[in-house]
Design brief:
heterodimer; A: 12% strand; B: alpha/beta; 6-stranded parallel sheet; 6 strands; Dehydrodolichyl diphosphate synthase 2 (chain B); Ditrans,polycis-polyprenyl diphosphate synthase ((2E,6E)-farnesyldiphosphate specific) (chain A)
Chain lengths: 255, 359
């Protein structure tokens, strides 16, 4: 029995030492992975600083005119961080972006429209900017606010408009349907129901998931989509780099 | 038009709300200590993100045999292809993957080859992808083979593509039937050469009852066209008095989209190759909550390793609202090690009560 007890004690010590060893290994793995991501984070921060301070000269020669319309999709939980949104918009104004569409699925940004416009001295609503205001000065920006109903619901409303027209014309036969329901007519109908924004050239997604969260689908046929990470981790340098990369892209549009 | 030719869906169309993202199950694996030998507790296992290059090379060799065999190689679904890669979680696999097969011409240009060689190489990549999808339990694969904008390409190139499509469908028809793969085609097929259009109708009809796997080929397709044709179909129902104009809703439009030929019309994952960051008028309505993965590889170079990378990225990224970013990725990638260690500390079931209390 003494021998058995002794063996059990030895076994128990061995297990405890083994467990301690496993904990140390786990801590080392944790440390190594943290170190790796820390190094990546530092590298990104340094690059961002170099871009922001203008040390990396190529980002100075940014042809911002190529970016006619920018869309920003923000995941709804992050859209509550209005100060961060305002900071982002301020950076875009500094870069020279003239027209921005802000989108979040639940319409939080729409509800905060007044607050955002109030904080930005030189911003107007896209709908209020007439033809004469399209040639804005460098530090002015138009903002469009969109949410999920401006996507699929708007297409359904636009389709209803076309159906009313179809019924009025006493539609019958395939030819009639094909004449009324065309892509051009759908675009017109969407404008008629209030979705007047143009197709963005570039779309930034801020949030944990890499999808556009229901941004009006009709408008993103050829839009470049870039996932920027979390809004709280946004950096001016990353923003500038992403816009610069876009200006270097050449699209074939399928041909 | 394809709308009059597409087979009736076998399953009732998805009429659920479009707001719900497809839930993603986080990578969680629990291993009971009773099932683990003591020696295993002290070993660190490979986890997602640590694929062995040699293993990957070996797998690539299995899927890409000697060059002289490739010409005659049909789609094979034997046990030669590997089972689910150990880095992937079966429960978190996407049900529907969509692919924009971009980069064939650039691939050929980089090698000093004619454009046709790029497309032929692309066909081989597609065969590989279909094999892998079948083996790894992906139910639907949609590929963007030819866009409505592609009609503006040089006529010679378009003719080549049409002939390639025709020969590809003819060659693989028997294997699709044998392997119970359903083929569906979406897009405006009325613009296709007559012979190809008839072949497409025939293959779609012949394979419509197959249930193992579905390959949807988008030919002469555009996302805006898909929406417009859905409206045209609804208009016919309005004309027939089946629907009031004001009753048209999003769900009604969804039911009439061409992608409703499948049980899973919304892709979980979209892969675009060649480094371009756009969806190019592909499945505009359906991609609202689809994870977008932009691969730097050109399409002919997109093989098992690249597909694995896309799937791992899909599985590691959170698909639901909540925390994310670096800390989440770290947690996912090391979670199993942590759990194994945790259970290593827990008392094993064969401990006596006294031992348990003592530990």
């Amino acid at each position: 029995m003494d021998f058995r007890d002794t063996m059990q004690k030895v076994y128990s010590w061995a297990c405890q030492i083994g467990n301690l060893g496993l904990w140390i290994i786990w801590l080392l793995i944790h440390f190594a992975v943290d170190l790796w991501y820390f190094a990546l984070h530092i590298a990104c921060a340094i690059e961002s600083y170099l871009i922001s301070s203008g040390i990396l000269k190529r980002y100075k020669a940014l042809d911002i005119d190529k970016l006619r319309y920018l869309a920003i999709v923000i995941e709804s939980e992050e859209a509550y961080h209005i100060p961060a949104v305002i900071q982002l918009l301020q950076w875009l104004v500094d870069i020279g972006v003239k027209h921005v569409c802000l989108y979040d699925a639940e319409g939080i940004l729409k509800k905060s429209k007044e607050s955002i416009l109030g904080k930005l001295n030189n911003a107007t609503l896209f709908e209020e900017a007439g033809e004469s205001n399209l040639l804005l000065d460098h530090k002015h920006i138009t903002l469009e606010f969109a949410s999920f109903p401006d996507g699929k619901e708007a297409v359904a409303k636009a389709a209803n408009l076309l159906f009313m027209k179809y019924v009025k014309l006493g539609g019958s036969g395939k030819i009639q349907e094909e004449k009324i329901f065309t892509e051009a007519h759908m675009s017109e109908a969407l404008r008629a129901v209030g979705c007047k924004g143009p197709e963005p050239d570039l779309l930034f997604v801020y949030g944990p998931v890499r999808c556009h969260l229901g941004f009006p689908a009709w408008r993103i046929r050829y839009t470049e989509i870039v996932h920027m990470g979390r809004l709280k981790s946004m950096r001016y340098g990353s923003l500038l780099k992403a816009i610069y990369k876009f200006t270097m892209v050449r699209q074939n549009y399928g041909s | 038009m394809i709308s009059s030719l597409s087979p009736q869906p076998l399953i009732k169309p998805n009429t659920g709300t479009t707001l719900s993202p497809i839930p993603h199950v986080q990578n969680q694996r629990f291993k009971l200590a009773s099932h683990v030998c003591p020696s295993e507790l002290l070993s660190i296992r490979k986890r997602p993100g640590s694929a062995c290059a040699a293993t990957t090379q070996h797998r690539r060799y299995l899927l890409f045999p000697a060059e002289e065999e490739e010409e005659e190689r049909e789609v094979k679904f034997t046990s030669d292809a590997p089972a689910l890669a150990e880095e992937l979680q079966r429960e978190s696999m996407p049900r529907h993957v969509a692919v924009i097969m971009d980069g064939n011409r650039r691939w050929a240009h980089l090698r000093g080859l004619p454009v046709g060689s790029g497309y032929e190489a692309g066909v081989k990549s597609l065969k590989t992808l279909v094999e892998l999808c079948c083996k790894w339990g992906i139910r639907v694969l949609t590929v963007f083979a030819f866009s409505s904008d592609n009609w503006f390409r040089p006529e010679v190139e378009v003719e080549f593509l049409m002939s390639l499509l025709e020969s590809g469908v003819k060659e693989e028809k028997e294997s699709f039937i044998r392997e119970r793969i359903r083929i569906s085609v979406i897009g405006d097929t009325s613009k296709l050469p007559k012979r190809l259009e008839e072949l497409v109708i025939n293959v779609v009809e012949t394979t419509k009852n197959n249930t193992r796997f579905q390959l949807i080929v988008a030919v002469s397709y555009s996302g805006q066209y898909d929406l417009v044709q859905a409206c045209q179909r609804i208009a016919m129902k309005v004309k027939d008095g089946l629907i009031e104009p004001n009753d048209v809703s999003e769900s009604l439009i969804e039911q009439e989209l061409e992608t409703n030929c499948t049980e899973f019309p919304y892709p979980d994952l979209l892969i675009r190759t060649s480094g371009e960051l756009r969806i190019s008028n592909f499945m505009l309505w359906q991609l609202a909550y689809t994870e977008l993965f932009f691969s730097q590889s050109l399409w002919p170079d997109f093989g098992e390793a690249e597909f694995l990378e896309a799937l791992k990225s899909f599985q590691q990224r959170r698909r639901h609202y909540g925390s994310g970013g670096v800390s989440s990725e770290f947690a996912n990638s090391c979670y199993v090690v942590y759990i194994e260690l945790f259970f290593a500390q827990s008392p094993r079931p064969d401990f006596s009560e006294a031992e348990f209390l003592e530990s």
